[in-house]
Write a structure and sequence with these properties.
alpha+beta; Glutamine Phosphoribosylpyrophosphate, subunit 1, domain 1; six-stranded antiparallel sheet; 5 helices
């Protein structure tokens, strides 16, 4: 199955170390060789880079490593195709504008397309490609469009409740791990995934790591919603598989939804 990576930080930072470890999953340390994508926010917009080639030997990935960017919000995906052709239009993350903000979504799982389309007919948003993941993103965008207050940014509680309901419906159709950002927060939903250990598809689907850094060398730490002092860098990392040997990685419970903003988990998890 595909793999996900996301980051939320207090101050803009680069993700070279995490991206290098993640890219290795796309052909060297993992079986995900059917494409990759990276999205990061800069000045309210999103730079999106995708290829329908393995990330592990991508010249584009090497260029990004040699010319690092800084961002507070990053989402990345490595593809193992289960639905849709091997084409860039089917590589993730997917990005769309809604309410004057860029929305980015990446999914790891396998949702039944026929049932998905029958239960959730699309209205305003429609896929460019032919994957279940992009269809699910369009379902979410249609739901978000129904929130009348979008041009003024709905409250985090309203958005989180809507995304929690969406996640529960997707879980009924198959594995539904996803990361999503509306430019304000990073939403992380863990479910089930294929672990390659002969035990089939099972939890956990995502792992999260919270860091508090007081100097140039990041150190793992446990974040509370209150955060730290003004000179500290706070970072939340999420990945399908832990990318480092740090002890702070925690597996999300099945059906758990976490929300991060500015490098910290901002509300108790929903299940």
């Amino acid at each position: 199955m595909c793999e996900l990576f996301g980051m939320s930080s207090r101050r803009a930072t680069d993700v070279r170390a995490s991206l290098e470890a993640f890219a290795r999953r796309g052909g060297l340390d993992g079986r995900q060789k059917d494409g990759w994508g990276l999205a990061y926010y800069v000045d309210g917009d999103v730079r999106l880079v995708k290829e329908a080639d393995p990330a592990a030997d991508s010249a584009c990935v090497r260029f990004i490593q040699d010319h690092p960017f800084a961002s507070q919000l990053v989402l990345a995906h490595i593809r193992k195709a289960t639905r849709g052709s091997l084409a860039m239009k089917n590589c993730q993350p997917f990005a769309r504008e809604l309410g004057g903000r860029m929305h980015v979504f990446a999914h790891n799982g396998d949702l039944e397309p026929g049932v998905l389309a029958a239960r959730f007919p699309l209205r305003r948003f429609h896929p460019v490609g032919d994957t279940d993941s992009e269809y699910a993103f369009c379902v979410l965008l249609d739901r978000l469009w129904d929130i009348e207050a979008w041009l003024h940014m709905p409250s985090l509680e309203v958005r989180r409740e809507l995304i929690s309901q969406f996640a529960a419906q997707m879980r009924s159709l198959g594995p539904a791990n996803f990361i999503y950002s509306d430019s304000d927060a990073l939403f992380m939903h863990g479910h089930r995934r294929f672990h390659g250990d002969g035990q089939g598809i099972r939890p956990p689907g995502l792992h999260v790591l919270c860091r508090r850094c007081t100097d140039a060398a990041p150190r793992p730490g446990h974040l509370t919603p209150e955060g730290g002092s003004q000179d500290e860098q706070l970072v939340v990392l999420v990945a399908s598989v832990p990318l480092t040997d740090e002890s702070g990685w925690r597996a999300l419970d099945e059906g758990e939804l976490l929300v991060a903003r500015d490098g910290r988990v901002v509300q108790p998890p929903l299940r």
